[in-house]
Amino acid sequence: MSEANAQGTPGDKPAPKANPAVFLRQVIAELRKVVWPTQKQLVNYFWVVLVFVLVFMLLVSLLDLGFGRLAFWIFGGAN
């Protein structure tokens, strides 16, 4: 789509709304264009995401523990 068509002119009317059946057909047509990952890729992505989340959970937990102890030390908490 060219920029002129995408932006339209100030006097253009908005496109009419599609009914749910047309919307559903368009969604299915778009999903058919998707390149789905293979099972091997999916398993690989799962492990990458799992390791990433676990590393950041560890990082945030250590920061929370450190800042908590620092706050107790500064404000005179018990031991």
Automatic annotation (TrEMBL):
Record InterPro entries: SecE_bac, SecE_sf, Translocase_SecE/Sec61-g
Span of the signal peptide: none
Family matches, as PROSITE patterns: SECE_SEC61G
Membrane spanning residue stretches: 42-63
Subcellular location: Cell membrane; Membrane
Keyword Ligase recorded: no
Self-association and partners: Component of the Sec protein translocase complex. Heterotrimer consisting of SecY, SecE and SecG subunits. The heterotrimers can form oligomers, although 1 heterotrimer is thought to be able to translocate proteins. Interacts with the ribosome. Interacts with SecDF, and other proteins may be involved. Interacts with SecA.
HAMAP family found in the cross-reference section: SecE
Name of this protein: Protein translocase subunit SecE
Record organism: Nocardioides yefusunii
Upper classification of the organism: Bacteria, Bacillati, Actinomycetota, Actinomycetes, Propionibacteriales
